[in-house]
Each structure stands twice: as C-alpha cells, then as structure tokens.
From TrEMBL:
It comes from Ornithinibacter aureus. The keyword Hydrolase applies. PROSITE patterns: PROKAR_LIPOPROTEIN. Keywords: Endonuclease, Hydrolase, Nuclease. The keyword Protein biosynthesis does not apply. It comes from the Bacteria. GO terms for molecular function: endonuclease activity. Residues 11-61 form the HNH nuclease domain. This is HNH endonuclease signature motif containing protein.
Length: 94
C-alpha cells in the first residue's frame, strides 16, 4: 500500500457515505460501513473518490479482491444499477 498513491480525503469519504446511503453493494443500512476499493489494490486500484465505495462488512469480506462485476453476478446483485450509480456519484463528487 505504501507504494500506491491514494488521494481520498476524509471529506470525500463522508460524502460517499451520504451519497450511497448504505452499503453500495447490498444497500444495508443497519451496520457499520467500510471503505472498499471497487478495483482492489491488489489489481491496481487506489483509494480515490471514483474507486472507493462504502461496503458493509459481509459484502467487503465476500468481495475480497474479486473483480466487482463477476462478484456482483455471483451474488445476484444488480450489476447495472451499481455501475450506473458508481459513475454518477463519482462524477458528482469529483
């Protein structure tokens, strides 16, 4: 992680949590949220406003370093809705 440049600010993280209003993957609102990289750091991702989403612990642990669209399909979550929102929220907060 020390070799990767990250630029997500605390303000952006707070704004992401408000914009998603729960887990970006499953929509859970009843548990603490964690920062999850859509493109995992192990696959070249970084902590940036366009690559980080709030995720509940179970989703974050389940996704691990999987590619997000394949993981969403396996979990039978709405891939299209997630990707659309990801782009919209990222553009609005950048």
């Amino acid at each position: 992680m020390a070799k990767v440049e990250h630029d997500l600010t605390d303000e952006q993280w707070s704004a992401l949590q408000v914009a998603w209003a729960g887990c970006a993957y499953c929509g859970a609102t009843d548990r603490p949220l964690q920062r999850d990289c859509v493109l995992p750091i192990s696959r070249g991702g970084r902590y940036t406003v366009r690559n980080v989403v709030p995720a509940c612990g179970p989703c974050n642990a389940s996704k691990c370093n999987d590619e997000v669209t394949g993981w969403l399909r396996r979990k039978r979550l709405d891939e299209r809705a997630f990707l659309t929102r990801l782009v919209e929220i990222g553009a609005a907060l950048e």
